[in-house]
Write a structure and sequence with these properties.
The structure is a homotetramer. The first copy, chain A, contains 6 helices and 9 strands. By secondary structure, the first copy, chain A, is of the alpha/beta class.
Chain lengths: ~240, ~240, ~240, ~240
C-alpha cells in the first residue's frame, strides 16, 4: 500500500491558448490546476501531457509507466490519434486507472471503453450545481459531507448515454431543472474508470476543495491492484478427467 | 404471455378516514385510485386489501393467489403484523412481484427485503418535482417521454438508504434543491421489486397519466415468470465422479 | 404486447461450406437451425442473413427493420466491414435487441459494444457442459429446470473479459475443470444484449430443447420497448428560474 | 491510509469442542486459525469473540470499536440473540465491514442484511474445489493467480439465494458437478460486506496461503471510509426558491 502511484494528467490544452476568458481562470492550463494539489499528496508522482506534444505526450514509455491517467479534452477530441486512443484503452484493460473529467465524456478513450454514444443534455447558463453524495460508503466520497455545490457551472443533464455505472457516487442538481449522474464508476478488464462531471473551462471548479478531494480519492480508487494477469494460457490447471 | 396477472392493491387506508384534506383528493381511498386505471387494462385482475381488514385483507389465500402486490402505507407501518410482513417477504422470494409506492419505503415488507434503514431526506413544501428518465430502454419507461413533472409534491431527497438498485429508471429533480432515485428495481429470490417515489396523500398524483403508466408498466415488469422453482434438492443431477 | 417481433438470424456461414463435419450437423447452415424453432413461435417474423451476401445481408433496410438480431460468427470476424459493425452498434443503442451466440464473443459488433477484449480460455475436448440457473426469476430462465446439460461441447472458461453483466442467468460447469458465465445480460443505450455461450459448430447444440428455449426467451427479453427516443433536445422542459 | 484497522474474529466455537475431528484440525478454534495470519499484518489489531461469552463477546463496546467483523457460525445460528444480530446489522449500515465465512451464509446478521433466504445446495463428499478469479482487477484478488484449489472441501452449489452481488470475484468449480459464486461483494448503508465460501470445519482450509490472502484482502476492502455520516438532517443546504 505504500508504493508510489504514478499519475499522468492529460489535457487538450487548447482553450487556454485560444480563449482569454479561459486563460484568465487557468493561466498555466487546466492540467496544471489538476496536477498541483495532487503533487502535494504523499505517494503521488505526477506528470502532465498535452495534445500538441509528440504522440500527445504519451509516447516514450509514458503511458506504460502510468498507474492512473486523468483526461480532460473538449474541442479537439477528433485530433487524438486512433492508435493512441487504442493504446489507452488497452492499458486500462491491463489495469491502468482512468479518471475522465467533464467534457472528456466524448473523448476517444472513454467512448471506446463505454461502447455507447456518451451523449448528454447540456446548457451554458452559469447556473448553480449541487452534488449529492448517494453512496456515502464509497471511497471516492471520503472526507466529504452529504452535499457540496458550485455557484456557477455548465449544465450536463440526463439521459447520459453510458452503460449503467457499477456505482453512482454523486447525483447533481442544477438550478435550471436538470439532474445528472456526476460521479460514475466502472471496471473494464483489470482497470477501474471514474467519470467526474464538474469542470467547465471558464469556471474555477478545479480550485475548489471538494473537487480536488474527489480527484485525489479517484486516483486512490482507480490505482491498479496486483491481481492475476490478463494474459491467458500462461499457467493452466491440470485437465480433470473427462 | 396472455395469462391474467392477478394484482392486489394494498393500502393502509387511514389518512383518507382521518384527514379531510386527503379524503377530498382520494374519497374512495388511495387503493381505489391506484386500482381504477389497472382495472381497465386487459389481462389484469385487480383486488384491493387494507390494514384494518382481518389479516390486513391478505388472508384466506389472497396473498398466495397474488401475482403482483402494490403497497401504500405511511403512518401505521408498525401495525402491520410481523407474521404477515414475513409472508409477503416469502412470497416475493418465491416470485411474487412487489410495487412499493411513496411512503411505503418504511413499510415492513420493503425494509425486510432491502436489509437497510430505507431512510431518506424529506420536506413538505408542495414544490415542483420533475422526473427524468435515465434508462429509456427499460420496460418501465415504455410510452413515456424524456421527462414528466408534478406541480406539487412532497420532497424525498438523497441519501436514500437502500441497496444500490439493479436499475435506476427515474431520477427526480425538486425545485427546493434535492435529487432522488425515484424509480428503483431489484430482484430478491425469484421476485422483482419496484419502488416508485411519487404519491403524497394530499396531491392528486395517482390521477396523473404518466404515474398511472409507470404503475401499469411496473406490474408487467414485476409479474412472475416460469423459471425453476426455489425449492432445492427436488431433482439433482447425477454426481460426477470425484 | 401483441405486436410482431422481427428477428434476423445472422450467420457467418463458412464452416458449413468448408468442413464436412460441420455440414453433417448443420446441412442448411447454423442460421437455419437457429431460425427454424423461432419460425414456429407465434408473433415472431424470422429472416436470415449471411456474411457473403451483399452488405452481409443487412442492407436494403434489413437492419433498420430488425427488432432483434441474432449473431453467430467465428473464423471470419475480420471480414465483417467496419461500417456495418458500426451500424449494428448504432441500432442497438437506439433499441434493437442483440443476441450473440458462442464464438460471436469476438465479433466486431459485440466487442465494440463491450469495450473490452472479450477474450476467454477455451479447449476443444468434447467434454460435458452443465449449465446451472443462477437467476431463476429472470425471464430468460422461463420454462427451465434448475440445470441442463450437453454431453459434448467446446469448453469456454473464465476469465471472460467482458464488463460485469447486469445479470448472470447461467453459469457453466465443464468436466475438465472450468467454469463460465454462460448467459450474460447488458443494456447499452436503449438496447438489450444477451450473450449465450453454447453452440460449437460440430455439435448439435442448437437442436436441443433447452437451448432453443433460451434463445426464444432471449428474443422476448431483448425485444425493444417504447421508452423515450435517444435523440436529445427535441422537447426540452422549460428552464427553471436560475 | 496508515491508521490501524480494528478486526474482531467471531466464531461460534462449538464444533471444536464437540467434535474430535474438528478439534484435530483447529485445536485452538477456527477463530484463532483465522486470526493468526491477520495478527502478523502491519496495521491490523485483532481480537476474537465467541458465542458462549457474555453478549457473544460483542458487548462492552467491542462491536462499537470494531472496523471489520469476521463471522463464522454453523450449528447454533439460532442461539445468536436477535438484539445482537440487529446491532451488527446497524453497525454495518453505519460503515463497519463484515466478512462472512462459509456456513455463516445462514447467520442472522447476514440473512438480515441480504433480505433473502441465503439457501444453497450442499454436499459433504470431500471433493476437489477450484476457485477461478473472474474479476482480476478487484482488490480482493490482489496477489492471486488465475485460479487456486483445495483438494477436499464441502460442496456449496447454485442457486445461492442472495441478491445479485455488486461484484463476483470468484466462481468455484466442484469435481462433483456444481458451480458457486464463492466471493461476493455487497454494500449496505455505508458498510461493505464480503462473503467467502471455503472453510469447512473438518478441512485445514484456513491454513492455506490463498485463503489467508483473500481474508486479508477482504479486511482491507471492507474497512470503513470517511464519507458523510448516515445521520440525516444535521446540516441541510439552504432551500432553493420554489
Amino acid at each position: 500500500m505504500s508504493r508510489t502511484i504514478r499519475i499522468t494528467v492529460w489535457n487538450e490544452y487548447r482553450h487556454e491558448k485560444n480563449d482569454a476568458a479561459v486563460a484568465a481562470v487557468y493561466p498555466a492550463g487546466i492540467h496544471e490546476a489538476v496536477a498541483e494539489p495532487l503533487r502535494r499528496e504523499p505517494g503521488f508522482a505526477v506528470r502532465t501531457a498535452t495534445l500538441d506534444e509528440p504522440e500527445h505526450g504519451l509516447g516514450g514509455g509514458v503511458l506504460e509507466s502510468t498507474d492512473v491517467l486523468i483526461w480532460w479534452g473538449h474541442q479537439a477530441h477528433e485530433e487524438v490519434s486512433d492508435a493512441i486512443a487504442a493504446r489507452v484503452q488497452q492499458r486500462v484493460l491491463q489495469g491502468m486507472g482512468l479518471v475522465v473529467l467533464h467534457s472528456g465524456h466524448l473523448s476517444k478513450p472513454f467512448t471506446r471503453l463505454m461502447g455507447t454514444s456518451c451523449l448528454l443534455r447540456w446548457r451554458e447558463a452559469g447556473e448553480k450545481e449541487r452534488l449529492w453524495v448517494v453512496e456515502p460508503g464509497h471511497p471516492i466520497a471520503d472526507g466529504l459531507g452529504a452535499w457540496f455545490e458550485m455557484p456557477h457551472e455548465e449544465m450536463y443533464g440526463e439521459r447520459f448515454d453510458v452503460p449503467a455505472p457499477e456505482a453512482v457516487v454523486f447525483i447533481s442538481w442544477f438550478a435550471g431543472g436538470n439532474v445528472f449522474r456526476s460521479g460514475c464508476c466502472w471496471t473494464r478488464g483489470k482497470g477501474r474508470i471514474f467519470y467526474f462531471r464538474p469542470g467547465h473551462e471558464t469556471y474555477p471548479t478545479y480550485k475548489q476543495r471538494e473537487v480536488q478531494a474527489v480527484i485525489r480519492n479517484a486516483v486512490l480508487w482507480t490505482a491498479p491492484g496486483s491481481g492475476p494477469e490478463m494474459k491467458l494460457g500462461d499457467r493452466e490447471p491440470p485437465l480433470e478427467k473427462i
